[in-house]
Amino acid sequence: MTSPETKRTGAEREAMIDAAVRALAQGEVTLDPGEAARVIGCGERWLRDGANQHGFPHHRFGKFLRFSLQDCREIREMNAEKGRPSALAKARRRKATPRKPTGSGPATSATVRFKPAA
């Protein structure tokens, strides 16, 4: 059996490829690692390592690494640090209650006693 692609002439195939390239170019922008790092707000090396070793979403075109805007959004969400309620609660408590002096603070002239030389 032959597929429909084998029956097309060279000019028809070129027209199809050109139309596909134009449709792809209109649909989505891809960024190189340097540009994507600036969009995300991270270092280029960290982004490349994440794509190569840690499963960050990306696209590969031969040896070229590219990131779509959707990939950049997903990477930011994957690495967003959630606020820890316990740390926030501690900060609120520190602000709300004044600290009591413990006596172990810096020495002042009133607290320093000198022994007379013998």
Describe what is shown at a glance.
This protein is mostly helical and 118 residues long. It is 53% helix and 8% strand. β2 and β3 form a beta hairpin.
Tally the helices: what do you get? Answer: 6
Q: Give the % helix.
A: 40-55%
Which consecutive residue ranges, at least 5 long each, have pLDDT under 50? none
**Helix and strand element order:** HHEHHEEHH
| Euclidean distance between termini CA atoms | 114 Å
Computed Rg: 31 Å
Quote the beta fraction. Answer: 5-15%
- pLDDT averaged over residues: 76
Account of the protein in words:
The protein has 118 residues and is mostly helical. Helices cover 53% and strands 8% of the residues. It has a three-stranded antiparallel β-sheet with strand order 1-3-2. Strand 2 and strand 3 (64-68) form a beta hairpin. It is rod-shaped. The model has no long low-confidence stretch (mean pLDDT 76).
Strand and helix layout:
Layout: H1 4-7, H2 10-27, E1 30-31, H3 33-40, H4 44-53, E2 59-61, E3 64-68, H5 69-78, H6 85-96
Antiparallel strand pairs: 1-3, 2-3
Helix pairs in contact: 3-4
Which short descriptors sum up this protein?
single chain, 118 residues, mainly alpha, 3-stranded antiparallel β-sheet, 6 helices, rod-shaped
